[in-house]
Design goal:
- In the C-terminal section; belongs to the class-I pyridoxal-phosphate-dependent aminotransferase family.
- Strands 3, 5, 6, 7, 8, 9, 10, 11 and 12 form a nine-stranded mixed β-sheet that branches. The chain has a four-stranded antiparallel β-sheet with strand order 13-14-17-16, covered by helices on one side.
- 48% of the residues are buried.
- It is an alpha/beta fold.
- Helices cover 43% and strands 14% of the residues.
Length: 473
């Protein structure tokens, strides 16, 4: 963090802990500058940041005062709906399409969106990379790079794996049209229609739709909103069903935001390897961590080539460029052939632009700014939930990504809340769209990936009223 951000966070922690109470006056800019040996401009920036977060407020000719009280953190949800252990045919696409259509409207508050604000990304800088790289593009590269993809881009991706302590050869990387294509190619490489595949519960709706479209049955395994999939239930499912694959999000899972601890990732990889079951790992949010280090993927513990690691630049750098990749281990040849026969290649100009951007540096600086913005927006949304939602509400506090999983008390119908909210210009993602059996009817996924403003605050107040009314109904 920058100096002013660290100073602001120190004050914010004191407010949350109750050391600084509502109505307390902060030291003047001069006092803080002298006592902390920092410049007045640094103090001003810190106070402006705290004011933007709603924690303090300036009073004319009087100074800055604390406006927020000590935060008694919302309790986090646990495993609220355990699957029955059977395999399930999936029919979720109509529900998902119906809900997703509402998130594309610009005049709707996008709490139900699957994407963060495009304003958080260095799109002008990427445009310059696009212009310069296309002008310098070797005409033969449009043929040479068809599959597995642009060699320079694959090298840059391999360098990022190496920085995380995972040596990956460029020949092991297959560039795809976003992570979703990578995941689907991996699924098709190891399963056939009628097979069974283990997924989380709740699960990313894109995984549910992929299984539905391929005619694959889902084995849902309970997933804890903080630590990920239940190991005991995973072991039981492997014994009972002999699945062809397991599809998991180990880092900042969508929708819960769960981060699987390293020891659990190791245990999952070892358990699946003992049964010879490939792991399709969706790691699109791994770069959006709020801590000091990127959490390693399960791929880091793969000794048999059974982990098929998939990611993309869509969430971390370049939304709309649709450039992802797979590192499919022992299945690399199968995935590359499937890619070649289906879509040939991802966009050559987009690949070249990203390779140019990564080679020139600036990605890590952008990521630091993006993570900081997302962490501040998460704090604002959690505070709004505490202010406006009914007593008994539970909410996750993810260590990265941009989703919060909210569990409402009682028998609240979040599909009904979704429809009511949409009529008022607010989108949300109701829990049943993340389940093959339409479970999690009292849960919501909320997106904090957009800058917080008065419109967002008012929308949260409206959602709180709708949730309270649903509980009383």
């Amino acid at each position: 963090m920058k100096l002013y951000e660290a100073f602001a966070e120190e004050i914010a922690q004191s407010i949350r802990a109750g050391v600084l109470k509502r109505g307390d006056r902060l030291p003047s800019v001069r006092q803080a500058s002298t006592s902390r040996a920092i410049s007045p401009s640094t103090v001003f920036e810190a106070y402006y940041l705290l004011e933007a977060r709603g924690l303090i407020r300036a009073r004319e000719r009087s100074g800055y005062y604390v406006t927020a009280g000590a935060r008694a953190q919302l309790p986090e949800p646990g495993i609220s709906a355990r699957p029955d252990g059977g395999s399930t045919a999936i029919e979720v696409s109509e529900l998902v399409f119906d809900i997703l259509e509402s998130t594309r409207m610009r005049d709707v508050v996008p709490f139900g969106s699957a994407f963060p604000s495009p304003l958080l990304y260095p799109l002008p800088r990427l445009a310059r990379s696009m212009a310069s790289s296309v002008q310098a593009m070797d005409p033969w590269s449009t043929v040479d790079d068809l599959t597995p993809g642009n060699a320079s881009l694959r090298r840059q991706i391999a360098l990022r794996y190496l920085a995380d302590g995972m040596p990956v050869h460029t020949d092991e990387i297959v560039i795809t049209n976003g992570a979703l294509e990578a995941l689907n190619l991996c699924l098709h490489a190891v399963a056939r229609p009628g097979d069974a595949v283990i997924i989380e519960s709740p699960a990313f709706y894109g995984a549910l739709q992929a299984l539905e479209g391929f005619g694959v049955r889902a084995i849902q395994v309970a997933t804890h909103p903080r630590e990920g999939i239940d190991l005991a239930e995973l072991a039981a499912a492997l014994e009972r069903h002999a699945p062809k694959a397991c599809w998991l999000m180990t880092n900042f899972q969508n929708p819960t935001g769960s981060l699987m601890p390293d020891e659990k990732k190791q245990a999952v990889v070892a358990l699946l390897a003992a049964h010879g079951v490939p792991l399709i790992e969706d790691d699109v949010y791994g770069e959006l961590y709020f801590g000091s280090m990127r959490p390693l993927p399960a791929k880091a513990y793969d000794k048999q080539g059974l982990v098929m690691h998939c990611s993309s630049f869509s969430k971390s750098l370049a939304p709309g460029y649709r450039v992802g990749w797979a590192v499919p281990g022992r299945f690399t040849r199968d995935v590359a052939r499937l890619k070649l026969t289906r879509t040939l290649s991802a966009s050559a100009p987009a690949q070249a632009a990203l390779a140019d951007y990564l080679a020139k540096g600036g990605y890590d600086k952008h990521l630091r700014q993006l993570r900081h913005a997302l962490s501040m927006q998460q704090e604002a949304m959690l505070q709004a939930i505490e202010r406006h939602f009914p007593a008994g509400t539970r909410a996750t506090r993810p260590d990265g990504g941009y989703f919060i999983w909210v569990e409402l008390p009682g028998n609240a119908d979040t599909i009904a809340i979704h429809r009511q909210a949409l009529s008022l210009g607010i989108s949300v993602a109701p829990g049943p769209m993340f389940s093959a059996q339409r479970r999690f009817g009292n849960c919501l996924r909320l997106n904090y990936g957009h800058p917080w403003d008065a419109r967002a605050e008012a929308a949260m107040a409206t959602l709180g009223r709708l949730a309270s009314a649903a509980i009383l109904a």
